[in-house]
């Protein structure tokens, strides 16, 4: 069996503050997990938790991934924006056009996210987290489809998207050109967990056969394996749990 997507991890200068922000926006429960530290547990079909990891490194440039949050109406979109602003978000300009219906915000540490306009057909059957929108090539979309065993739900003009057979958000990749890497590593990454009866090394070998590679980001002696996908975006393979 393949690994499952255990968590989306945020590097955070103040993990507790950032966790409280996203718990408020998403209406998820915050927990202090002995293995994962400060985490948010999904209250819907998202299928993965969100981890907040302490980091001294400051954010440099746009993130490689961001949330697209859905809306049921224009009023609902404004309510989500107002709630996020009250919790500490701010409006930002990433080059969006005035006629575009989505609203771009940043959380208290500058991590970008979008509140999407209602009647967005691509996210029509998704929950509040409609998508995790990512910078990435068509090749990396194919890689993650095989890595997670999630089917492709979009593959057109080098843009790709996958989604769990159980529902939840789509993960999308926008195709070229790719933004250059800024900083030592990306601020957001995936944690993959092999099945409880699985084998970490066998899973690492499988991912390497799909195009990933092991990388050293200064992690030292740890029980997880740090890897990078074909575009160079880091992720971790945990021990079976």
UniProtKB/TrEMBL annotation:
VOC domain sequence ranges: 4-118, 125-240
SUPFAM superfamilies in alphabetical order: Glyoxalase/Bleomycin resistance protein/Dihydroxybiphenyl dioxygenase (SSF54593)
TM stretches of this protein: none
Protein name, UniProt field: VOC domain-containing protein
């Amino acid at each position: 069996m393949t690994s499952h997507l255990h968590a989306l991890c945020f590097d955070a200068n103040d993990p507790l503050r950032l966790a409280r922000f996203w718990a408020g926006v998403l209406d998820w429960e915050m927990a202090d997990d002995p293995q994962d530290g400060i985490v948010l547990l999904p209250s819907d079909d998202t299928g993965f938790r969100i981890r907040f990891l302490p980091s001294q490194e400051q954010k440099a440039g746009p993130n490689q991934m961001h949330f697209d949050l859905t809306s049921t109406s224009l009023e609902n979109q404004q309510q989500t924006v107002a709630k996020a602003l009250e919790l500490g978000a701010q409006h930002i300009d990433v080059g969006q056009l005035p006629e575009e219906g989505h609203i771009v915000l940043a959380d208290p540490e500058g991590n970008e996210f979008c509140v999407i306009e209602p009647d967005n057909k691509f996210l029509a059957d998704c929950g509040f987290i409609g998508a995790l929108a990512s910078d990435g090539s068509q090749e990396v979309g194919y890689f993650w489809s095989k890595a997670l065993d999630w089917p492709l739900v979009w593959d057109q003009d080098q843009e790709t998207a996958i989604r769990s057979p159980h529902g939840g958000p789509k993960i999308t990749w926008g195709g070229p050109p790719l933004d250059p890497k800024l900083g030592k590593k990306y601020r957001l990454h995936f944690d993959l967990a092999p099945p409880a009866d699985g084998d970490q090394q066998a899973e690492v070998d499988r991912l390497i056969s799909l195009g990933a590679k092991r990388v050293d980001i200064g992690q030292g002696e740890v029980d997880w394996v740090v890897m990078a996908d074909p575009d160079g975006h880091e992720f971790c393979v945990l021990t079976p749990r």
